[in-house]
Amino acid sequence: EHTNPVARAVDKVIDAVTDRDPSGEIPGRPGVEPPSLAEPVEPRGPLPPKPDQRGPDAFTATGQPSGETAAARAQGGEFLTTATGTRLPDTDHSLKAGVRGPVLLRDHHLREKITHFDHERIPERVVHARGAAAHGVFRAYGTAATVTRAAFLAKNVETPVFVRFSTVLGSRGSADTVRDTRGFATKFYTSEGIFDLVGNNIPVFFIQDAIKFPDVIHAGKPHPDREIPQAQSAHDTFWDFVSLHTEATHHTIWNMSDRGIPRSFRMMEGFGVHTFRLVAEDGGTVLVKFHWKPKAGVHSLVWEEAQLLGGVDPDFHRRDLADAIEAGAFPEWELGVQMFPDTQDQTYEGIDLLDSTKIVPEELAPVQPVGLMTLNANPVNFFAETEQVAFHTGHLVPGIDVTDDPLLAGRMFSYLDTQISRLGGPNFDQLPINRPHAPVNDMLRDGMHQTAVHAGVAPYRPNSLDGGCPFHAPDGYVEVPFPVAAGPRGRLAPASYDDHFSQPRLFWLSLSPVEKEHVIAAYTFELSKVFEQTIKERQLQVLARIDPVLCGEVAAGLGLPVPEGVPGADPAPSPALSQVGRTWPVAGRVIGIVAGPDADAVRTIRQAVLDGGMVPLVIAPTGGVLPGTGEPMTVQRTFAAARSVEFDAILVAGAPAPGADATGARDAKAGLPGPVDPRVTLLLSEAYRHAKPLGGWGDAEDAFAAAGIPPGAPGVTSGDDPAAVLGQVITSLGGHRVWERFPSALA
Ligand code: HDD
User: Can you give the residue ranges of the Catalase core domain (predicted)?
Assistant: First the structure.
């Protein structure tokens, strides 16, 4: 047992996931026996949720603590029943007239079983269909208590939360690592009702007015004739739209940057995007933008990794989130606000706060922390929780109000509306995951899937028959009486909304050289996939207005002439926009260890990785248990299953010969050609290309050489002392990648 609690938990999970002891219980699940080879003959009750899992809190449809589990209607008891509780002796044979006779229509069990199955699917979300979620808790620092009366932001108040992360364009079954915006939606179950902060990992949006949402989504979704490509922006309709509709330029350059391919949901920022209005106890107001800052830092994949992962592990982000929580390495974010005076013109330093295509640089308005969110439990049931959770920008609590951002106005309508078709009626708030933890006393009645049993006879007001209840709540939610600047009615927008290029240029100028290289490569890749030449040329005209280097490099990549076009003035860069150049914690990072002949050295180093709060995965030619002294050490990845994209760094305990035995020893039977197993050289050359730290001892240098890694390459450490090698690797990992391996002419 090691001392670091995260490492201890990681250890337990690794045991639970991969090293089941065939004779004993399942680690971490006391009393639960491992499955037997034969089908069990004795019935037993359903298994309890695993220690890392938690269902929705148990509240009634009217928001009262229910005293029972929210899963009351889920599996219970040992014997099969119908939906109405009648026990069944057989569910494997339809009711027939004779052994080879026809199936009878009167078979109510057959019909119930098949009918229910036929209706298992609900419409997927029209956007953000692919997602993963977790439960957690938000604890407020109290720093926002002077500017908002929201009870959940008062000092040390703890509020349960449920967070769903998502991609935007892909279907429910699409890959996690595609280039796209990520959704970051948080449901706060506050004592004053539900507050939903429905944000993204990109602080701006493609459009300034919600009326254009169907346009941008129709352009981004697969082409309507062949329904391809899935979960991609690299196609004609997307680039046709954004090249014509230049207010999308800012969001698009963020998508083309490393922000479009996060390393993990745990390593993304979140943004409320719009400006919101906070209301204090005394009625005073401030304008704010919400930010989530991940404790693990903001990190991304590189594009080739993202593409490989689409095939190797399409569930990469979903798995990473669940594994981290199961391991006890709970992801954390600080919630912060940028604050602006609530002036009549609703601008700050000349930036229109009602324009969702604009940011306010953090250097102009620092993000002030107001609380900490910790995700600490996985859902018990994906459908009941992650699929049925319903977010809505209109789920607000006293002390938080919306502004007149026309993008937000449309969202205030759309979210409620979409749940009605997605969840089958107006009572979706009564689904367990959506139930408030505050008493509900509305006058909404009946409707599809009503589960509340409302007492009383007078769901109307005024009434005398129910004693006049419900009364208006004097301390309830009030919209701020902000004076509206009147003007002519019309389909209008302010002149400031015409500035589409100054902030894309600000973003570009704020990136480090290697990040700029990635942006160039992303535009070049995406536009190379566009069929129509005119669309590419038009998009180059857009790029010319951002920056001549960006435009020139992409044009060269496409083999097209550089168009005329001049960027605007140089804004002061915002260093906060760059992800590179800082040092971050390495807890929760995944370290592959290619086993070598000295299994004890592997054991020691594996333990040191665990003690550092990271996740070691032992890689060997075949599965099984490594020899040596001490506890048995199970191989978690065979050479056949290991792929570099799963690891943040790789340690090599020797150069395994082709077809080596379980220790990787060189004396094994001959097999694949070459001095080192080609699956290991692929592992190492990819990891090297993706700028991951590498370390090795024994004859690891032979493996590095076989992988084409030049001697003395940055971030590649070899030596005789495995502990010192690991130390170097951890130092490199703190910077996320060995950025020097991407030399840039833009430096
Ligand atoms: Fe939206 C889902 C975020 C603009 C209409 N949106 C959805 C989700 C996120 C966002 C994170 C997934 C929620 C979940 O996990 O269930 N959307 C945003 C952000 C926007 C934005 C940050 C701009 C700042 N959205 C936007 C507009 C409209 C919508 C302008 C419509 C006018 N969004 C929807 C929707 C969805 C949705 C159709 C689909 C499924 C759902 O709501 O529940 O209502």
Answer: 81-469
Mutate to test the pocket of ligand 1, among 126, 127, 265 (most ligand atoms within 8 A of CB): 127
The whole-model pTM stands at 0.93
**Contact status, residue 34 vs residue 40, Cβ threshold 8 Å:** no
Neighbour tally for 668: CB within 10 Å: 17
Residues 600 and 671 reside in one and the same domain: yes
Helix axes 513-528, 249-256, angle to 10 degrees: 100
User: Ligand 1 atom closest to Cα of 271?
Assistant: 22
Q: How many of the other CB atoms lie within 10 Å of CB of 15? A: 15
- Which CATH number does the domain housing residue 699 bear? 3.40.50.880
68: tokens are 């029972």
pLDDT at 22: 45
pLDDT, tens digit, for every residue of 24-69? 556 556 666 777 788 888 877 767 778 888 888 888 878 888 766 5
Overall domain count for the chain: 3
Last residue of a domain, one of 409, 434, 459: 434
* Cα 558 from chain centre: 32
Q: How many whole angstroms separate alpha carbon 152 and alpha carbon 372?
A: 12
- Helix 213-220 × helix 236-244 angle, to 10°: 140
Q: What long-range pairs does 35-42 form, CB within 8 A, spacing at least 24?
A: none
Q: Does residue 583 form part of some domain?
A: no
If you average pLDDT over every residue of the chain, what do you get? 91
For residue 412, the surrounding DSSP H or E stretch is helix 406-422
Position of tokens 């179950």? 189
Q: What is the DSSP letter of 235?
A: S
Last residue of a domain, one of 434, 464, 496: 434
pLDDT single digits (tens) 527-556: 999 999 999 999 999 999 999 999 999 999
Q: Compute, in angstroms, the gap from residue 411 CA to the centroid of ligand 1.
A: 7
Summarised one tens digit per residue, pLDDT across range 429-479 is 999 999 999 999 999 999 999 999 998 999 999 999 999 999 999 999 999
pLDDT at 502 > cutoff 90: yes
By most ligand atoms within 8 Å of CB, the mutation choice from 207, 415, 420 for ligand 1 is 415
Residue 406 reports pLDDT greater than 60: yes
Helices (H), 127-248: 213-220, 236-244
Distance CA 659, CA 641 (A): 15
Distances (CA, A) of 706 to 144, 592, 606, 647, 683: 57, 18, 24, 20, 11
Domain CATH number, residue 314: 2.40.180.10
For the CA of 129, the closest atom of ligand 1 is 40
Query: Which candidate, 85, 50, 127, 71, places its Cα nearest to that of 431?
Result: 71
Output the CA 240–ligand 1 centroid distance in Å. 22
| Dist CA 281 CA 732 (whole Å) | 48
- Is residue 282 included in any domain, yes or no? yes
Query: Which of 198, 200, 202 for mutating ligand 1's site (highest number of atoms within 8 Å of CB)?
Result: 198
Q: Is there a contact between 269 and 199 (Cβ–Cβ < 8 Å)?
A: no
In the reported structure, the alpha carbon of residue 415 is separated from the centroid of ligand 1 by a whole-number distance in angstroms of 7
Range of the domain at 394: 131-233+261-434
For residue 292 and ligand 1, the question of a CB distance below 6 A is answered with: no
CB atoms within 10 A of CB 460: 10
Amino acid at 562: V
> What's the token pair of residue 10?
């990681």
Residues 6+ apart with CB under 8 A from 586: 612, 613, 614, 648, 730, 733, 734
128 catalytic residue (yes or no):
yes
Q: Is 418 in the pocket of ligand 1 (CB under 6 A)?
A: yes
> CA angle, 95 as apex, 90 and 97 as ends, to 5°?
140
What is the pLDDT, as a whole number, of residue 673? 56
> Contact 526/540 with Cβ under 8 angstroms?
no
201 is catalytic: no
Residues 314 and 386 in one domain: yes
Sign of CA dihedral 250, 256, 257, 258: positive
